[in-house]
Write a structure and sequence with these properties.
44% of the residues lie in helices and 18% in strands. It contains eight helices and ten strands. The strands form two sheets. Strands 1, 2, 5, 6, 7, 8, 9 and 10 form an eight-stranded mixed β-sheet that branches. Strands 3-4 form a two-stranded antiparallel ribbon. α1 runs parallel beside α2. The protein is extended and about 105 Å long.
């Protein structure tokens, strides 16, 4: 099974590559056995994995996530901020909800032009009386205020809190251009490597197309040769006419009487 978190030593010494491709989830518990269930995307798991490489000087974080637990994401954000290594975040696809908060931990945030970020307010499912529901709403306001600080700290003055609050209230999707303008990202992903890959793919497709055209031309030439060949008629001996069917013998008087009786007893209907 593919791991949602993948932390591995890069080919370069002292560089770690961290891939977050999936939802951020907390550890759980089996309600039947009471056994602790460890999540591969929890802050605890991330802490343990990151602790295996204390000598890391560079950490590259690659994100493609729709978000998840705000508590786990906030803890991961703070772990990255506290880590002495230089952190570069690459948003490979989507950085939504708390995944966008994790992205704010990057000393540098890099986005391709087709990547997206989504910011919104935290939410929860709540039951209870009026006082309990009011408290839940107040708690959400406090949580949202904490999340806003992560964005504002990264933006460095390019985004004020009132504008950010309105964007989070509206659940706003941001392009790479928007993120760079607002200070939530620092630069676009390099184009040279992407264009080189695209050029190689196009060249491969061009070769395949040329091969298919050449094959089609060869098949068409062979078909033309077959069509224009003179027909060779085989001389066959005339077939003998089929034998005439033999007539049933005329029934005698006794048989005719029996058949007449049966005909009166059974009638075939359509």
């Amino acid at each position: 099974m593919k791991r949602l978190w993948e932390l591995k030593q890069s080919a370069q010494a002292g560089v770690l590559d961290l891939y977050l491709y999936g939802n951020v989830e907390s550890d759980g518990e089996d309600w039947w056995t009471g056994q602790r269930l460890e999540s591969e995307t929890s802050a605890n798991h991330f802490r343990d994995e990151l602790g295996k490489y204390p000598e890391a000087k560079e950490v590259n974080v690659y994100i493609n996530s729709y978000g998840g637990s705000v508590f786990e994401g906030t803890a991961i954000y703070n772990q990255l901020r506290r880590h002495p290594a230089h952190v570069t975040v690459y948003i490979d696809g989507f950085a939504c909800s708390v995944a966008s908060v994790i992205a704010m931990a990057g000393d540098k945030v890099v986005m391709p032009k087709n990547a997206m970020m989504m910011i919104h307010n935290a939410y929860l499912y709540a039951v209870g009386n009026a006082a309990e529901l009011r408290k839940a709403a107040d708690d959400l306001d406090t949580i949202n205020q904490g999340n806003r600080q992560a964005y504002l700290q990264k933006a460095g003055g390019k985004l004020d809190e009132d504008e950010l609050t309105a964007m989070m209230d509206a659940e706003t999707w941001l392009t790479a251009e928007d993120c760079i303008r607002l200070g939530l990202a620092d630069e676009y992903a390099e184009k040279d490597a992407d264009m080189a890959d695209a050029s190689a793919i196009l060249q491969h497709a061009k070769l395949n197309l040329e091969q298919r055209i050449h094959l089609q031309k060869a098949l068409a030439a062979q078909l033309r040769e077959v069509v224009h060949q003179p027909a060779q008629l085989e001389q066959r001996e005339p077939e003998a006419p089929p034998p005439e069917p033999q007539k049933d013998p005329e029934p005698n008087s006794q048989t005719a009487g029996i058949m007449g009786m049966l005909g009166g007893m059974f009638t075939i209907r359509k």
